[in-house]
Amino acid sequence: MTRFLIVGPPGAGKGTQSARLTDTFGIPAIATGDIFRANIKNQTELGQQVKAIIDAGDYVPDSLTNDLVAHRLLEEDAVDGFLLDGYPRTLDQLGFLDGVLAKSDTALDAVIQLVVDPNEVVSRLLKRAHEEGRTDDTEDTIRHRQSLYKRETAPLIAVYKDRGLVIEIDALGEVDEVASRIAAALADRGIALPDAATK
Ligand code: AMP
């Protein structure tokens, strides 16, 4: 029964840490960015609708994104837990998610906030663009996504802070180091790693 959200600006390492957490806890990652990219790659109708938006570094409309997540959360593997990565990103999405979770009498257990200096991550993102061929990782688009994050997404953290859910993690450093910080912070809150993972 583990319901996490991982949040942080572009390039904070959400995807990498999210893969670690889903392995450890045996829960699926629900990463809206990944779902959109898969749809673009497979040239689905959704993919065609969102390609230009994503390439420009803008946010996909809330209605589309909410709908996608609502369906994904109903799938069998997400019933006992999940890790949301990159959703919610707006206050509208946050409210929608609250509603979806309330319907199944559940709620988030923790919000893992990855904290990084935006300037430090631009070079990291440019490197990723090169390695993964992401078309939304040019320097201009990165700066645009960073400012959108600050304006639209950072305010969500205050809401979750009020609910006592936020775990702040310094996300600069080696992947293992950051993963250990997350594990320690979760343990501090009484969310222990499953036995097999701590051996
Ligand atoms: P990410 O992989 O999380 O960095 O997402 C890549 C891109 O997908 C973002 O820059 C947005 O264009 C779009 N996207 C992903 N998640 C959302 C969301 N929750 N709301 C709106 N747009 C999103």
Automatic annotation (TrEMBL):
InterPro entries: Adenylat/UMP-CMP_kin (IPR000850), Adenylat_kinase_CS (IPR033690), P-loop_NTPase (IPR027417)
A GO term, aspect molecular function: ATP binding
Pfam families according to UniProt: ADK
Residues bound to AMP: T32, R37, D58, Y59, V60, G86, Y87, P88, R89, Q93, R134, R145
One cellular-component annotation, GO: cytoplasm
Principal cellular location given in the protein's record: cytoplasm
Documented EC number(s): 2.7.4.3
Positions of region (NMP): 31-60
Catalytic activity: AMP + ATP = 2 ADP
Pathway: Purine metabolism; AMP biosynthesis via salvage pathway; AMP from ADP: step 1/1
Compartment annotation: Cytoplasm
Top-level enzyme category: transferase
Residues given in the record as ATP binding sites: G11, A12, G13, K14, G15, T16, R128, G173
Keyword Nucleotide-binding: yes
Keyword list, A-Z: ATP-binding, Cytoplasm, Kinase, Nucleotide biosynthesis, Nucleotide-binding, Transferase
Listed CDD domains: ADK (cd01428)
Protein's GO biological process: AMP salvage
Alphabetized NCBIfam families for the sequence: PRK00279.1-3, PRK14527.1, PRK14531.1, PRK14532.1
Known partners and oligomeric status: Monomer.
Function: Catalyzes the reversible transfer of the terminal phosphate group between ATP and AMP. Plays an important role in cellular energy homeostasis and in adenine nucleotide metabolism.
Domain commentary: Consists of three domains, a large central CORE domain and two small peripheral domains, NMPbind and LID, which undergo movements during catalysis. The LID domain closes over the site of phosphoryl transfer upon ATP binding. Assembling and dissambling the active center during each catalytic cycle provides an effective means to prevent ATP hydrolysis.
Family: Belongs to the adenylate kinase family.
Protein name in UniProt: Adenylate kinase
Organism whose genome encodes this protein: Glaciihabitans arcticus
Gene that specifies this protein: adk
